[in-house]
């Protein structure tokens, strides 16, 4: 979901019912000068300038449209924004989506003679238009010059007779240019026919006409105007008033896109969840059948011709089943993360023991490829809050990648360091490395350093994205150092803290009992099992 919001042009902010910031899209983060982690510790009141009442109205739902706010950037610069809110769920929590667009400071300047009511506009103009004294004509000029809305007097053929200066401000055309044009000349070609028909239909009864149309700017762009037309005191003269609603239209379009994106994201996640479970069931049956066949062959209960390499065929089926199972597991987990239903179960564990046990459990796989693996630590015992299953998932994925891209006689180094109240765990290899143009993409979903069909190892590109999410669920972070031909080093850090109200646990998991199948699944893109 964040990926979608980061691509929209406008600013997106998500807060909970207490005003705490839950998410801020990249365009707004850059404008405010914050990073992700800083935003998550802020409340709306800390970034909105002098607007206690507006914040209260947003939180209780009083203000939903046309919200004017002044945001504080990190360097205390004021940013003027306008927008509206949508009440939706964010990662299963009731939240408030605030869709914003930056507007210039001039928007907040007081307007002279701002006219919104057309019923009063036509009377004001024609009280002056029908008079001939020069002082009153000057009054008309002043009126048209100071009005904030676009105001014009048009004859029966649609030609401008008088225009306010705001037409130039909004559309760019000079008064002289407009006075030589027909009103329909600036209408969008797709809307001219409907515009003319609406005028004919409504002016018969001298009704007030209100239309939303795109009008041509001098620079070739189009702006949305809310146009009102009325035949006033002279049957051959019409009053046209309009206001620029381009911003409101853009907000409306963005709102529709957002709602559609939320809807489509829900459909996509539901589809992936359903299809993943549908894949997983037959895969487990296939794997169970293969294991049963293997046991019966080992015990001599199944006779077969030695000319047929049955064991090789069975191993091939198992390996590719594990490969599919790995993909399905990753898809299910990413879907759960996206929808906010993926949970970690924290307990207080000895992280040194966990990482060492996992590293040593893959020794046979590494040695089969002629690679050395070494584990080192600067602390013998360190207890912290973590989910051992998720740490195992992280480590197996990083080790799998290191094995994939390290040649025979290479080496893999697993290093655990404790410093500054955090633990740093690195998996380093001296393999092929990653090029600079790919290194920033490898943590993206489906991002791969080599996405060609001739790459040396298989993979979907989901693994490292999942690893990043699992690390962040531990309030940690991950990064990579790499140089082509010299290898890569993946480093993740998690804070050292303990879970409250939890009996201190020491890791007592028999990894050898459960690790074989997990390794087979995680390393299925490398080995013939």
TrEMBL record:
PROSITE patterns: HIS_KIN, PAS. InterPro entries: HATPase_C_sf, HATPase_dom, His_kinase_dom, HisK_dim/P_dom, HisK_dim/P_sf, PAS, PAS-like_dom_sf, PAS_fold_3. GO terms for molecular function: ATP binding; phosphorelay sensor kinase activity. Residues 274-498 form the Histidine kinase domain. It holds the Pfam family HisKA. SMART domains: HATPase_c (SM00387), HisKA (SM00388), PAS (SM00091). The keyword Hydrolase does not apply. NCBIfam families: sensory_box (TIGR00229). This is histidine kinase. It comes from Romboutsia maritimum.
